[in-house]
Amino acid sequence: MRSHLFIPLLALILTTAGCHILPSAKVDPTRFFVLTSPELKPTQTPPSSSGLRLGITKLEIPGYLQNRSIVVKQNTNEVSIQDLNRWAEPLETALGRVIKSGLIQNPRISSVNFAPFPIDMSRDYDVTITLNTCEGFINTSDKTSAQFSASVEITTPSPESKIIAKYNYIAQSLDWDGTDYGKLAEELSSDALALGNDIPNHLP
Q: Are the CB atoms for 182 and 147 separated by under 8 Å?
């Protein structure tokens, strides 16, 4: 009689113990963000085929931004890498897409292409963009903001390349609460779009 009771009791003990031994599934706390740009509305006039044709020869970003983690700069020389708050795609790819969107919004621009260019593709001007900042920032007084700046050079296409314009673009620092990374991505998106809007102002 006892043997008949022992086996079910042992099974119950092992089952109960197993519930405590097996670790519970952990939820991945990592969050992913994208830079966004407005879509072309049906009511907007498409780019003119007779407009300027631009080539983006290079979009260079600093080494410390060449990773998927969002960066927050603390003071001048210290950065904080936010491993749990990451870009969903390479920052260079995201910036290129948003800047192109800003360029195409200008009626003077008919096309924007990125290097390497097809051999038979004609261009009116080439644009080189060197990103300087694209991050959150916390200063010594613990004030937080979004910072975005870049250096832009516009030239005529090779082989007889001539510099048309060379300037620094510094977006107005936007308030950021230091914790809402969705808001930070939104503000940096606006800055990148504004850079695209600004470049045609420096074309002849």
A: no
